[in-house]
Amino acid sequence: MTTIIEKAKAGFFQMIDEFGSDQYNLRSHVPEVEKWAKHMLKKLPDANGEAVLLSVWLHDIGHYPIPTDIDHAVRSEERAKAFLKKEKYPKDKTNKILHCIRAHRCRDILPESVEAKIIACADSASHMTEPTIYLDMAKSDKENNNEFRVYAKMERDYRDLGIFPEIQNELKELYQNWKNLIKSYEKIDLK
Length: 191
Ligand SMILES: [Fe+2]
Ligand SMILES: [Fe+2]
Fold this sequence. Notes:
By secondary structure, the protein is mostly helical. The chain has a single domain (4-187), classed as Hypothetical protein af1432. The protein is built from nine helices and no strands. α4 runs antiparallel to α5 (91-102), α6 (114-129) runs parallel beside α9 (165-187) and α8 runs antiparallel to α9. The longest helix has 23 residues, at 165-187. The chain is globular and about 55 Å long. Bound molecules: fe (ii) ion (2 copies). One fe (ii) ion binds at residues 29, 33, 59-60, 123. Residues 29, 33, 59-60, 123 line the site of one fe (ii) ion (FE2).
């Protein structure tokens, strides 16, 4: 029998397939978020594993199609709500998951539950262990003569890792090395 987590996962890949391209590298990003979420669940046994894993596969389901004026966290929440309703998922559990999705960017809505904190922290941690996300941003800033937005992105990610100081500490060395790498890269002038 297909579990609801597997259905959410299939729906996520379907969103990318229907859009036809994956400029946010979600095919690689979300499985990386899943790894971090599982890593944190081992440390936080009181958290609800099903809510966390469903939120992993649903948190970015509003990204495509682009462009859109709607924040992808808002669109992901709407789509997750429709999906869970269709699956007749219990209302109280649904609300738990919707909060994880809506708060994953730590912007206008901050994560309150332990599950939402895991998702926000795992999302930021995954950026640190993806091989190209910061370099791709730096390259695009360089090519467009933009100020390097990537530093602010790294700062936000590192700040959000602070939700769980143990995880922040685990990634501290990598974060410092990313900053040094990006600084070295910024100095190269190919024009
Ligand atoms: Fe996201
Ligand atoms: Fe994400």
